[in-house]
Write a structure and sequence with these properties.
By secondary structure, the protein is α/β, with parallel strands linked by helices. It has a single domain, classed as Luciferase-like domain (TIM Barrel, Alpha-Beta Barrel), CATH 3.20.20.30. The chain contains 14 helices and 10 strands. The strands form 2 sheets. Strands 1, 2, 3, 4, 5, 6, 9 and 10 form an 8-stranded parallel sheet that branches.
Length: about 290
C-alpha cells in the first residue's frame, strides 16, 4: 500500500439513536477527509442494516465491519451483502471478519473450538460464494492468523494492540496487504483523568485471553495487565493528551508500517453521542 489512510473506528455508528443521526456523523467525517468508517457488526445473526444505510447516505467514504464474527453470521449472507454493496457502491465496503472471543461466543466454552480452523472453513465458504479476497480483511493478532490474512484476504485489522505489534505485523503481511490497526485515543491532557477514561475501556479487554496473550508476546507482564492496565501499558495502547500528542501516538503506527489507522475516540463508554469535536481536532492535524 502506498497511500496513508486515516479512518474512524467508532461504536456510535451501531448505537446511534437513529439512522439519520448516524448518516449525519458519517457525512461530516467524509467532508473532513477521513477514508473509512469501521464499527462492529455486533452479535446478531444478521449484518446490521446500518452498514447499508451509511453507504447509501454518503458519497465517497468507505464503510467496514470491524468485525463481523464468524460464529454469528453466515458466509452466504455476508457474501451477498458484499456483492450488493460492490454493485451499488463500488470499492466502498470492506468486510472485516474475526473469531471474536470464547467469553462472548458462549459462556460455557462448548461452542468456541478451534477458531483458526473455523476461520479457514469460513473463508472457504466465502470463496465458494464468490467473494473476492480483496473485499475482506481479518482481525489478525498472532502469527498464524496474520499469515492467513496475507494468504486469504486483503490484509489485517488488528484491534487493541501497540505500535510494536504493528511493526511485527507489517513484515508478516508483506508489502501488498493492507495493515489497518484500530487505535483508541483519549483527548485529555491531564494524566489522571486521561488514564481513568482509558481504563474504562481497557478493563474489559484485559479480561479476554486473545488480547492478553498477544500482549504477553511483547513482554507485558501479569502486573501490567492487572487492574485495567499499568500506566505504562495504558500509555502504550492508548495515545492520550492534546490533539497534537494524540496525533503523535497515532503516527507511531504509521512509522511502524500501518497503511491505515482506524481511530477510536474514547468518551467514557457513551456510545449514543458522537465525539465530533475530537475528530475535527484530529482531522486538522492528520488530514
Amino acid at each position: 500500500m502506498t497511500q496513508r489512510l486515516v479512518s474512524v473506528w467508532q461504536p456510535y455508528f451501531l448505537g446511534a439513536p437513529s439512522s439519520s443521526a448516524a448518516v449525519d456523523a458519517a457525512t461530516e467525517l467524509e467532508e473532513l477527509g477521513y477514508s473509512r468508517i469501521w464499527f462492529s457488526a455486533g452479535f446478531g445473526e444478521n449484518l446490521p442494516a446500518r452498514f447499508g444505510e451509511l453507504l447509501a447516505g454518503t458519497r465517497r467514504i468507505g464503510v467496514a465491519s470491524g468485525i463481523a464474527t464468524i460464529w454469528h453470521t453466515s458466509p452466504a449472507e455476508l457474501a451477498a451483502f458484499a456483492a450488493a454493496a460492490a454493485n451499488a457502491h463500488p470499492g466502498r465496503f470492506l468486510l472485516g471478519l474475526g473469531t471474536s472471543h470464547a467469553a462472548l461466543v458462549d459462556g460455557d466454552h462448548t461452542r468456541y473450538r478451534r477458531p483458526y480452523s473455523k476461520m479457514v472453513e469460513y473463508l472457504d465458504a466465502l470463496d465458494a460464494a464468490g467473494l473476492p479476497t480483496e473485499r475482506r480483511v481479518l482481525a489478525a493478532l498472532g502469527p498464524r492468523m496474520l499469515e492467513l490474512a496475507r494468504d486469504r484476504s486483503a490484509g489485517a485489522h488488528p484491534y487493541f494492540t501497540t505500535a510494536e505489534h504493528t511493526a511485527e505485523a507489517r513484515p508478516a503481511l508483506g508489502p501488498g496487504r493492507l495493515l489497518a490497526p484500530e487505535v483508541a485515543v483519549v483527548l485529555e491532557a491531564e494524566a489522571t483523568r486521561a488514564r481513568a477514561v482509558a481504563r474504562q475501556y481497557t478493563a474489559g479487554y484485559l479480561k479476554l485471553p486473545n488480547y492478553t496473550n498477544n500482549l504477553r508476546r511483547f513482554g507485558w507482564t501479569d502486573e501490567d495487565l492487572a487492574g485495567g492496565g499499568s500506566d505504562r501499558l495504558v500509555d502504550a495502547v492508548i495515545p492520550w493528551g492534546t490533539p497534537e500528542q494524540v496525533a503523535a501516538g497515532i503516527e507511531k503506527h504509521y512509522r511502524a508500517g500501518a497503511d491505515e489507522v482506524a481511530i477510536q475516540v474514547l468518551n467514557g463508554g457513551d456510545h449514543t453521542s458522537f465525539p465530533a469535536d475530537a475528530f475535527r481536532a484530529l482531522a486538522a492535524i492528520l488530514l
